[in-house]
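User: Just a sanity check before I run the rest of the batch. Below are the structure tokens for the first item. I only need the designed sequence back.
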């Protein structure tokens, strides 16, 4: 998943705690294998995961996949429909045109983007839960589950921790955080929201219990060319970078949903994004624009504290302190 995963469990029984850690990491390894779409640097005996098989059979035949992959794609398709395609797992050809994933990034010509965009259509991703198959109907199509895999893996890791009796845990997977239960003292876990323009600072602190907070930003994966920053969050309608926001943070009981929505809201932008997320029950969001104006949903007021640092202007009636 191209990130560092940290799992912190608090347990009086050390052996039990270490077993829980192993099970959580086993989940991440399994989902990483299923969803990884890049075969490079794998051993000769490597068995391709579901996404590699799906992409390799695009336009040819349906591929039988695991129940995890079916659930990931179904949830992605659900939000693709709700957001009008702002989140689209068939974005793979466009991501390839920009070189994201192979460390050979460059700015493609409009003609190249156009060819890639012709292959992006979530409606052409056919999922058959009964037969446990996925089919990309057009040759050249490819799935990219980078905007959902970490969140899904986190939800499954939390299930594994709960099954072995863990009541206090914090998982951090590169901008994707889940707080299981409370801290041992009964207080909520406190998680910082990074300042998108100063990596060592934080804009706000979230209080979390049994919920996920997922952040997407234009600083996480990017390259610069001729003084312009090109990040990895692509608008599926244009094939180019979404520019109306520089960071989104979504809070939800489901890390899968929060992961998807952090990307979808980034693409939708501040106006459409806030209008969309405010209608989602049990979901909160913090959106930051390039003008350093911060929007936050009202349902986060009691668990969100802004630091007041960095020159950000808060556009909601929320607590500030230094």
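Assistant: Here's the designed sequence for the first item:
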């Amino acid at each position: 998943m191209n990130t560092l995963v940290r799992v912190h469990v608090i347990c009086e029984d050390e052996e039990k705690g270490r077993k829980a850690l192993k099970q959580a990491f086993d989940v991440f390894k399994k989902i990483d294998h299923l969803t990884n779409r890049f075969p490079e640097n794998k051993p000769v005996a490597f068995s391709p995961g579901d996404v590699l098989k799906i992409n390799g059979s695009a336009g040819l035949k349906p591929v039988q996949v695991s129940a995890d992959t079916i659930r990931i794609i179904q949830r992605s398709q659900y939000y693709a429909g709700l957001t009008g395609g702002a989140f689209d797992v068939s974005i793979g050809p466009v991501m390839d045109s920009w070189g994201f994933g192979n460390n050979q990034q460059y700015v493609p010509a409009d003609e190249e983007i156009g060819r890639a965009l012709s292959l992006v259509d979530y409606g052409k991703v056919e999922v058959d839960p009964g037969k446990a198959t996925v089919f990309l109907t057009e040759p050249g199509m490819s799935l990219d589950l980078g905007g959902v895999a970490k969140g899904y893996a986190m939800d499954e890791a939390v299930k594994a921790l709960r099954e072995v009796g863990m009541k206090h845990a914090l998982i951090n997977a590169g901008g994707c955080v889940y707080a299981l239960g409370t801290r041992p003292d009964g207080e909520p876990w406190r998680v910082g929201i990074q300042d998108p323009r100063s990596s060592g600072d934080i804009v706000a602190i979230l209080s979390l219990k049994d919920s996920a907070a997922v952040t997407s930003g234009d600083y996480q994966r990017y390259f610069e060319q001729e003084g312009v920053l090109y990040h990895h969050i692509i608008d599926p309608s244009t094939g180019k970078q979404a520019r109306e926001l520089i960071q989104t943070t979504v809070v939800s009981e489901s890390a899968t949903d929060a992961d998807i929505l952090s990307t979808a809201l980034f693409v939708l932008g501040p106006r459409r994004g806030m209008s969309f997320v405010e209608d989602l029950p049990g979901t909160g969001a913090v959106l930051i624009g390039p003008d350093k104006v911060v929007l936050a949903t009202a349902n986060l007021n009691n668990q969100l504290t802004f630091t007041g640092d960095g020159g950000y202007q808060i556009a909601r009636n929320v607590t500030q302190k230094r």
